[in-house]
Amino acid sequence: MMRALYLKILSCLMVMISPAALFAADQPAAMLYSHGTALLNGNSIARSSAIFFGDLVQTNPGSVANISATGSSVLVLNDSLIQYEGSSLKLEHGGVTISTSKSLATRAGDVIVSPTASVWTEFEVRDVDGRVQIAARKGDLTISDASGTTTLAQGQQTTRDESQSQTDNKTDNRKRKKRVAAAAVPGAAQGIFNSPVAIGIGAGLIVGGTAWVLSKSDDPVSPAKP
Questions:
Q1: Would you give the DSSP letter of residue 222?
Q2: I want to staple 77 with a disulfide (CB 3.0 to 4.6 A). Which of 49, 95, 113, 129 is the partner?
Q3: CA angle 181, 184, 190 (to 5 degrees)
């Protein structure tokens, strides 16, 4: 009887523990090592800390950081901000150097950079003023953005726009400037009436009209008046 009860309790515990273990397995963890001042989710870390899916890592202009995960190593360059996403990194600004055999990808805006094959690959990605600079140090890379997917061969470098929306914004700004310039043309015609010559002519007309009215007022109002 006690044995049956014990087995039931054990079964219940396994039912509760197993999903939690599976969930934890889906959340890849890594170790972060700072060289100088680095922030983890906005908090300064002394030397090292475990990081998990969604954590933000930030370095200042005088520091760098290393992320060590199974099959991958990431150097977070100075003055950078990245988000750790397990099988990928999200680069907000700055740069990263990645060495991986697990096809660890990097995303900067709409640009996704990943190893072409699941072999040891080394590459660098920098996001500078909306321009993504990519260098394939070892192994080929696959680059995907709004224009499609291309392959960057080992030893090659390229640059992409961070997002198509930035290009659209630049086009909209140019169109807006043209509309403003076009709208300013009718205003120029109105400006003629504000010129000194126009003002002088207008004043002369007013004075002449006033004098004519006053001269007419000297005429007899009635035939009875001598």
A1: S
A2: 95
A3: 165
Q: Is the dihedral of CA 18, 19, 22, 24 positive or negative?
A: negative
Per-residue model confidence (pLDDT) at position 1: 58
Residue 125 · residue 144 · CB < 8 Å: no
> What is the per-residue DSSP string for 29-61?
-EEEEEESSEEETTEEESSEEEE-TT-EEEE-T
pLDDT tens-digit map of 98-108: 999 999 999 99
Conformation bin of residue 121: beta by default, left when phi > 0, alpha when psi is -120 to 50: beta
pLDDT at 226: 43
Q: How many CA atoms lie less than 13 Å away from 209 in the CB half-sphere? A: 6
Instruction: Please provide the CATH number assigned to the domain covering 28-162.
Output: 2.60.120.1440
**Residues 68, 42, 108: CA angle, nearest 5 degrees:** 60
As a whole number, mean pLDDT of residues 16-27 equals 46
- Closest listed residue to residue 65, CA positions, set 98, 90, 32: 32
Rounded Cα–Cα distance for residues 29 and 31 (Å): 7
Query: Using the 8-state DSSP alphabet, how is residue 82 labeled?
Result: E
Q: Which of 47, 53, 4, 45 is nearest to 25 (CA)?
A: 53
Under DSSP, the state recorded for 183 is H
The identity of residue 180, as a single letter, is V
Domain boundaries, given as residue ranges, for the chain: 28-162, 167-217
pTM of the model: 0.62
